[in-house]
Each structure stands twice: as C-alpha cells, then as structure tokens.
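WARN retry 2 of 3 for item q-0093 after timeout on previous attempt; input resubmitted unchanged.
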Amino acid sequence: MDNAQGNSNYALEKLRALLRSDSLDADGKLPTERTLSEMLGVSRRSIRRALEVLEAEGRIWRRQGSGTFAGKRPDEWSNQVDSIIAETDFMEIMEVRLRIEPQLVQLAAMRAKAAEIECMYDLVEKIYGSTDADGRELWDGALHRQIAQCAGNQFFLTIFDVINRVRQDPAWQTIRERARSISRTREVTYGQHRAIVDAIAARDPARAGEAMRQHLLTLQESLIRITSLDHGETAAE
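OK item q-0093 returned
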C-alpha cells in the first residue's frame, strides 16, 4: 500500500476535501498523520506525501512540535513585533524615535523628490484640518512614514515600521490625544510639522534633524506630564 501511487493521489484528494470543509478546529489544526491514515484508510507514507504537496502549494503549514495547520504560514515577524510592543512602554518608544527619526529626516532632506515634498505639505494640512483624534493620528502617522520612506533606506524604514506599529494600539492613541490636550495645540503641531518639511524642501539636513528632534521632545515632555498626572491620581486614591 505504501508504494501505490494511487493511494497518495487518493489521500491528496481527500485532504483537499477536508481543507474545503468546515470540520477542522477553530485554529485550523489538522489531525495527526496517524489519525488521517486511519480516517482515509491509506498509509501514513501516502498521507505524508500528500501533505508535502499541500505544503508546497501553500495550503497548509507545519510547526515543529505543534502539528499541521490549514492556510498560509502566519507572519512570524508580525507576531514578534506584537510581542515586543506588548513588553515596552511609551517612554521607550519615544527614546527610540528620538534616535531614529532625526536621522531619517536628514536623509529625506538629501533624497526626497519634489513631488514627495509636496505630498508632505499636503499631509501637514490634513493633520491640521482633522477635527477628531483618529483623523489626526492617521495623517500624523502618514506624514512621519512618508519622511521615513523618502530617506531611501529600506532597513531604516523597516525599523521605523516596527516603531510605528504602536500607533495601532488604542491605548497609545488615547494617551497621545491626552498629551495634545495638555500642552500641544494644533497650532504648535502645525508649526513644528511645517518647520520639518520646510527644512526638507530647503535641502538642509541639519535643520531638518533639529526640527524633528524638537517636535519629538515636545511630544515626549507631554507624555511625561501625562504619566506624572496618572501616578499622582493613583497615589491620591
């Protein structure tokens, strides 16, 4: 039975049907090779061959020690990023941003195309024109990523994207909006963003880097004040 090609084809056909059905567990985990062999009445070798074909097609994936699962292999990098974000805090994020983004904007000042700079100015106006926290956060993130992208360094951009993933956290959005309400009016943010883009447009890396640094320091100071207020309220309770 092990050497019968028909058994492997039969196993492959049945496994395809299994993947199309809704009989798998919620996590998409398939039964063990032994169980599949007994279910389908074919050898484990035939099952193994069929699974190899399905894996090559991207229909299943395997995790050592955990089993075989339907669908495409999860993005392990995304899982790692989520874990990193879960174990950090806002102050650590700001410390990294202060060391990364001034470097990115300096590169952008040397490499950004005219059309890209016009896009940055447009994004600044969209931030200023937004009337709700979600809109401001959306366009603010778009501006900072546009600058990072214009730096023209893919490795730097990947690092930035890891940092920027924290923007998807509702807690981050809440604390950012609270920080704005305490000491950062829309006019202040608008002026700082304009100063950054003006320096890029002037092809002045040093001025661009300093403008970004001042912008992030302002945000960091506001976040520190928020944290201090929260601690004070907790102590008072």
